[in-house]
TrEMBL record:
Residues 405-419 have a biased composition (Low complexity). Keywords: ATP-binding, Helicase, Hydrolase, Nucleotide-binding. GO terms for molecular function: ATP binding; hydrolase activity; RNA helicase activity; RNA strand annealing activity. SUPFAM superfamilies: P-loop containing nucleoside triphosphate hydrolases. This is RNA helicase. A motif (Q motif) lies at residues 1-29. InterPro entries: DEAD/DEAH_box_helicase_dom, DEAD/DEAH_RhlB, DEAD_box_RNA_helicases, Helicase_ATP-bd, Helicase_C-like, P-loop_NTPase, RNA-helicase_DEAD-box_CS, RNA_helicase_DEAD_Q_motif.
Amino acid sequence: MTFSELNIDQDMVDALAAKGIIEPFPIQAQTIPLALDGQDIIGQAKTGTGKTFGFGLPIIQRLGLHPEPGVQALVVVPTRELCVQVFEDLSQAAANRDTDVVAIYGGKAYEGQIAQLKSGAQIVVGTPGRLLDLAGQRLLNLGNVREMVLDEADKMLDLGFLADIEKLFAQTPATRHTMLFSATMPGPIVALARRFMTRPIHIRATDPDEGQIQANIKHLIYRAHSLDKDEVVARILQAEGRGKTVVFTRTKRAAAKLVEELNDRGFNAAAVHGDLNQEQRERAMAAFKAGKKDILIATDVAARGIDVEDVTHVINHTIPDDEKTYLHRAGRTGRAGKTGIAVTFVDWEDLHKWALINRALEFGQPEPTETYSSSPHLFSDLDIPTGSKGRLKPTPAVKTESAPRGTRSEGSGSRSGSSEGDRNRNRSRTRGGRPAGSPAGETAPSGDVSQAAGTHDGGGTEHHDGNSAPRRRRRRSRGGAPTTPAS
């Protein structure tokens, strides 16, 4: 089947073909004909199965080749990363028609987004907070919205956006065409659909006999020691056939630490987490998609926005909090029908979390395999070449230079040698210091060089000839007469 057979306009078929997209996925084949007729839809399918074009192509076509200026379609997404991804997909599909798409999300300057709205953009893709912000300032008018899509609805619920979603729905006409897409359908999402949708059709683009775990993803569960995890990751990154890899961490700090560690080991990694500003996050994501970076370290904030077809491995550096998060993390690989590998590390203190995930997803592996960076099964499970180490490049050698003769070593209070110290003490007799054998209470004049070998009071400069003891510039004593060093 082709998109033409689904009655998609030729200009969009050509735009997709230019990117190598020819055949529709099951969710697209089932959704597009109904959406083109204006049917409200609840679409349920696993992540990475093409939901964006399932709703995107119909709303673009329903607006027409030359839509009037002004917001007529609204797509609401939970995260900034997903907002950018959906924006790019819709812009690609509308490349050959007079339809402007704008991305509205936080972390970016208002001015550019407002300018695009004022210029007449017809399709808005946005996150709830920024959308409500602009609507509250009367810079975004939703009164003429004909098409509305709620994407990743279950993630909206997890992030606490349900009240914001209801406010957005309230600002749009009741006669709008509405589509809701989600990987799972918890009760509050079903209630939301009943309240704001008109006789929706529920579409499930999955095999009824298929489990929640995608069959094209190999899942490996290891009980790993926290101090050995980075070594294990470094070996996995050398597996045969490894392509782009996403490593998930629980905290922003852990993500920042891991990306620094992997880059130091010679790998090519970037990070996406909440401590980075939006420009840095977008730059890292763009580098990953373009292949300039082949490893992306991310917290769960980015899980829904990583839509890259050639991700071969996902590594859970820390176990997800629940089975839904696990599915969304693992769903970054095995996309578009390709195969993938998901590796999960379970800390000793997180075994209870794994027990819950194992039961919910029916893994049948109640005990994770105890694994270390030297474990033979690690190499065989992931096709890692024998003898692979945890570093692609050697640790930079630290150059240590010996201290000049007659000076103190850095950070210590010892002299460089007893004989040198003796010579310096002998020289000090002629420089106004306390002669050897003089009374203990007698001290050197305050303006002169101290007895400590190779040190000075801050006003003199040491000179070394490489062989002899340090020579010093002529100094003036307190009385003003020059003091000449002993030869």
